[in-house]
Predict the 3D structure of the following.
Amino acid sequence: MHVGMDFGTTNSAVAVAGDEGPAAVVQFSTAAGPTSSLRSVLAFDKHHRGATGGIAPLVGHHAIDAYLQADGECRFLQSFKSYLTSRVFTSTSILGTSYTLEDLIALIVKTLRDHAATTTNAEVKRVVAGRPVRFVAESGQPEDDFATGRLCDAFAKAGVDEVVFEYEPVAAAYYYEKRLTCDETVLVADFGGGTSDFCLIRLGPGRALLDRPQDAIIGTNGVGLAGDAFDRRIVQYGLSRHFGKDATFESNHKILPVPAWIYSKLERWHHIGFLNLPSTLRLLRDLERKVDRPDQLGQLLALIEYNLGYHLYRSVEQAKIDLSRAEATDFTFCHDPVEIRRRITRVEFEGWIEPELAAIESCVDGLLDATGIQAKAVDRVFLTGGSSLVPAVRAIFARRFGAAKLSTGGEFISVASGLAHRAREVFS
């Protein structure tokens, strides 16, 4: 059997393929029933011990359950794929044990590997894994070699002897090609949690991507933003003021705002945990006594101290989903002592994410310009990944290529399925 592994910022998936036929996506058991994707999260609960007596990390849905039910110290980690380009984040101490970033990623990869092995009843030592077209650091600089090197180390720690990387939109193209009965020139757009990636490619029975992948690919491009950036804008513009953003206090006869860096952490869901430091909490308690809106700063303190960041961002994510289906949603976040009720309209949301939409559109235009392919020469646009469901994202491609050319599907499984088909080719 051949294994394709999609380790994602928010969700991960793994698929297996035999020597012929379609790929099968591996299922994960949850309290709500089987699911085809694994949340890319970890929990370290001091009460959950392994056979040797040490703290046993929990992965995916088990991590979420432990975090929600924890009555003691429980560390919850998410979006750590976003740190692959960071030369600062080398390791972290969790309940007295040091973990490198590669160690944390390996825990997710090992879970994917173990589930694939159970499904195939065979040891998994070789995989094709997905990667974005560009790994982009927060500075905007490309860090491809550094990030892929860390991924290789993480896969090795997870027991994978050989890993071959494939661009995620190319993998999605393998998935999409299975439905074709005629040849097409296709723009594949894959929207993950951290990156938006694009591939212009020739597909179909007469072109056989599996037979000639290098001849089929016309060009690729990517930008380092996607679903997480949309969530960040909802927090930044829709919710931050509830937590005291723009509140002021007097110091040395001057009126000063609450430091902006606090809210830059709040606006990135994988950074909220960094606010739960003794020095930061002391600063916030001191400011609470001085600011003109103390109740709101108290809400921020409660969010941090009660470890409600995950709950907040699940509500934000649900609001984004609701706005993909309706013109407005009533955002409600009630976790005592924090309470937020706010109506958010799709028009507001689309205004908040306008910079991201412009960057996505510019990236697509750059791909067309670099390849010399005109929009009218593109037969089909295949949109996949969670943020492909956002109407404003779809509108970019409808304007450029025409709504009739848009196709969607496999939002959370297309990349893993395509990677399994690629693994069949690589390892046969």
